[in-house]
Design a protein that fits this description.
Blueprint lengths: L36 E6 L14 H7 L19 H4 L2 E6 L7 H17 L3 E6 L5 H12 L4 E6 L17 H7 L8 E6 L6 H10 L2 E4 H7 L1 H10 L6 E7 L21 H14 L2 E7 L10 H22 L10
Parallel strand pairs: 1-2, 1-3, 3-8, 4-5, 4-7, 5-6, 7-8
Helix pairs in contact: 1-10, 3-4, 4-5, 7-8, 9-10
The structure holds manganese (II) ion.
């Protein structure tokens, strides 16, 4: 199946169809061969505990972009690189969900992410609720095995709870570690706050070797030093999955999400952190989850998710070039 340009040349952002950044569309995994990154949507939200709507996330994220022309040119002025000049990035469409059957949907997500990995591309998954971390990270872990995969997890919530039923957007880290896909000492969580999960789940995580950085610690020390520690702990892990739940940001910066918790990161902090991680760490996969457009205002949250992907791509491009950022300063 060919790479399909769904936009006419010189079409502004608001015109035509919305792949991610007006990138070519490739629905067949074999067609991803030669690509560095494949972006895929996972439009499912049947496993949320509170407000639904994340099934509309992938479409809203793709449509939120105010500047992508066709073909995309996205020179990042903070690093002096256009990721689309350095990397071949394709849009792999959406995983077809099966409404009412989340296990079937998750199996399809796992197969799709596995197909992207098998084609040699790094998957970036647009959620969807955070339950998709189970098939997303699981597929990447299978692909890199027997090498281990590290997991950097931005979230207000630890998502490692023991709950019945087991499949939920509050349990994926628990399932991944119990199944052996990820080892506890290779997990680092950033931005946790609020009133869930209970102490018993933190005790379990402690016993597994999880490391986490509460929002209070970030407030006191600053995100830079916290990231230094977070990355040092997985410095020896050869492959890393980056899982970003947009509710790690304060609801002021990410109102369109299902389980908001006040007192989070700013958009600026998260964008910089994601770029830094993609620059310094060998990313094997990424997901941006929990964008719920029905609760969004003025596309604030969808656009943040879009830019998080662009910052990740910018960091990966810098890493590929092997050079330092060259910001566009005035002199
Ligand atoms: Mn989450």
């Amino acid at each position: 199946m060919p790479r399909t340009n769904v936009n006419r040349p010189d079409e502004p952002a608001y015109a035509g169809l919305a792949t991610f950044a007006k990138l070519p569309l490739v629905l067949d995994a074999e067609g991803l061969r030669g690509a560095d990154v494949a972006i895929v949507g996972a439009p499912t939200d049947e496993l949320v505990s509170y407000r639904p709507g994340a099934r509309f996330g992938p479409r809203a994220i793709r449509a939120s972009d105010p500047i992508a022309w066709s073909p995309p040119s996205m020179p990042n002025m903070d690093v002096g690189v256009d990721p689309f000049e350095v990397l071949t990035v394709l849009d792999h469409g959406d995983v077809p969900p099966t409404p009412g059957y989340p296990h079937v949907t998750h199996d399809a997500i796992r197969r799709t992410v596995a197909g992207i990995c098998a084609a040699g591309a790094v998957p970036i998954v647009l959620g969807g609720d955070h339950s998709i971390a189970h098939p997303d990270v699981g597929a990447v872990a299978d692909h890199v095995a027997p090498a281990p995969v590290g997991l950097i997890h931005f979230d207000a919530h630890a998502d490692d709870a023991y709950e019945e039923p087991r499949l939920s957007h509050g349990t994926p880290l628990r399932l991944l570690v119990e199944e052996g896909a990820v080892r506890g000492e290779h997990v680092v969580q950033i931005g946790l706050r609020g009133y869930w999960p209970p102490p018993s789940d933190f005790a379990w995580a402690r016993a597994q070797g999880f490391r986490w950085h509460l929002m209070d610690e970030i407030h006191e020390r600053g995100l830079g030093p916290v990231l230094d520690d977070a990355l040092a702990g997985i410095a020896e892990v050869p492959h890393v999955f980056l899982s970003v739940d947009v509710d790690v940001c304060d609801p002021a910066f990410a109102p369109g999400t299902g389980t908001p918790e006040p007192g989070g990161l700013t958009a600026r902090e998260l964008l910089r952190a994601v770029r830094r991680i993609a620059t310094e760490v060998p990313l094997a996969g990424m997901e941006v989850v929990e964008v719920s457009p029905p609760y969004d205002h003025a596309d604030v949250t969808a656009l943040l998710a879009h830019r998080l992907v662009l910052e990740a791509l910018s960091g990966m491009a810098l890493r590929r070039l092997g050079r330092e950022p060259q910001p566009e300063r005035s002199g």
